Amino acid sequence: MIKAGIIGSTGYAGQELVRLLIAHPEAEIVWYGSRSYVDEPYSRVYGNMFKIVDADCRDDDLQQLAEEADVIFTATPQGYLAGVISEDILKKTKIIDLSADFRLKNVNVYEKWYGISHKAPALLREAVYGLTELNRENIPDARLLANPGCYTTTSILTLYPLIREHMIDPATVIVDAKSGTSGAGRGAKLPNLYCEVNESIKPYGVTTHRHTPEIEEQLGYAWLAGEYEKEEGGAWNLFRVGQKEYEEGNAGGKKALTISFTPHLVPMNRGILATCYASLTGNYTEADVRAAYEKYYGNEYFIRILPEGTCPETRWVEGSNFVDIGFKIDERSGRIVAMGALDNMVKGAAGQAVQNMNLMFGLPETEGLRLPPVFP
Amino acid sequence: MIKAGIIGSTGYAGQELVRLLIAHPEAEIVWYGSRSYVDEPYSRVYGNMFKIVDADCRDDDLQQLAEEADVIFTATPQGYLAGVISEDILKKTKIIDLSADFRLKNVNVYEKWYGISHKAPALLREAVYGLTELNRENIPDARLLANPGCYTTTSILTLYPLIREHMIDPATVIVDAKSGTSGAGRGAKLPNLYCEVNESIKPYGVTTHRHTPEIEEQLGYAWLAGEYEKEEGGAWNLFRVGQKEYEEGNAGGKKALTISFTPHLVPMNRGILATCYASLTGNYTEADVRAAYEKYYGNEYFIRILPEGTCPETRWVEGSNFVDIGFKIDERSGRIVAMGALDNMVKGAAGQAVQNMNLMFGLPETEGLRLPPVFP
Amino acid sequence: MIKAGIIGSTGYAGQELVRLLIAHPEAEIVWYGSRSYVDEPYSRVYGNMFKIVDADCRDDDLQQLAEEADVIFTATPQGYLAGVISEDILKKTKIIDLSADFRLKNVNVYEKWYGISHKAPALLREAVYGLTELNRENIPDARLLANPGCYTTTSILTLYPLIREHMIDPATVIVDAKSGTSGAGRGAKLPNLYCEVNESIKPYGVTTHRHTPEIEEQLGYAWLAGEYEKEEGGAWNLFRVGQKEYEEGNAGGKKALTISFTPHLVPMNRGILATCYASLTGNYTEADVRAAYEKYYGNEYFIRILPEGTCPETRWVEGSNFVDIGFKIDERSGRIVAMGALDNMVKGAAGQAVQNMNLMFGLPETEGLRLPPVFP
Amino acid sequence: MIKAGIIGSTGYAGQELVRLLIAHPEAEIVWYGSRSYVDEPYSRVYGNMFKIVDADCRDDDLQQLAEEADVIFTATPQGYLAGVISEDILKKTKIIDLSADFRLKNVNVYEKWYGISHKAPALLREAVYGLTELNRENIPDARLLANPGCYTTTSILTLYPLIREHMIDPATVIVDAKSGTSGAGRGAKLPNLYCEVNESIKPYGVTTHRHTPEIEEQLGYAWLAGEYEKEEGGAWNLFRVGQKEYEEGNAGGKKALTISFTPHLVPMNRGILATCYASLTGNYTEADVRAAYEKYYGNEYFIRILPEGTCPETRWVEGSNFVDIGFKIDERSGRIVAMGALDNMVKGAAGQAVQNMNLMFGLPETEGLRLPPVFP
Question: Does pTM top 0.90 for this prediction?
Answer without folding.
Answer: yes
